[in-house]
């Protein structure tokens, strides 16, 4: 294995542990506001995965880049849907349509 690959694996594993530690310490009331901020980061991830998939350095990088594009897109769309749902809960009337029977 090359030194760059080993360093990349170390960074990935450490980032995973740090991410789990940070998120587990956040109170539940702050998860949705933090999700709004993480959508911006996921957008950056989506751009990076598009670049990785389109570079064409080899079959493995294209496949991994494509998988990253799909997962980042799901993350961004899901984050915006959850944020929109939370924002509708705080509007007048609790997000329900007026004039209809419940």
Question: Would you mind describing this structure in some detail?
Answer:
The protein has helices at 3-24, 31-55, 59-89. It contains 3 helices and no strands. The termini are far apart. Helix 2 packs antiparallel against helix 3. It has one domain (3-89). The protein has 102 residues and is mainly α.
Order of helices and strands: HHH
Shape: flat
Largest sheet: none
Cα radius of gyration in angstroms = 19 Å
Q: What's the number of structural domains?
A: 1
Low-confidence stretches: none
Number of helices: 3
Share of residues in helices: over 70%
Q: Separation of termini?
A: 62 Å
**How many beta-strand elements?**
0
The average pLDDT value, as a whole number, equals 78
Q: What is the element layout, followed by pairings?
A:
Elements: H1 3-24, H2 31-55, H3 59-89
């Amino acid at each position: 294995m090359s030194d760059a690959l080993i360093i990349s694996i170390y960074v990935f594993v450490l980032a995973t542990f740090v991410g789990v530690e940070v998120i587990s310490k956040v109170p539940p009331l702050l998860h949705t506001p933090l999700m709004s901020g993480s959508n911006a980061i996921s957008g950056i991830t989506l751009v990076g995965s598009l670049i990785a998939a389109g570079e064409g350095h080899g079959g493995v990088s294209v496949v991994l880049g494509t998988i990253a594009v799909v997962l980042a897109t799901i993350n961004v769309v899901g984050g915006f849907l959850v944020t929109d749902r939370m924002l509708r809960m705080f509007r007048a009337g609790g997000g329900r349509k007026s004039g209809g029977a419940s």
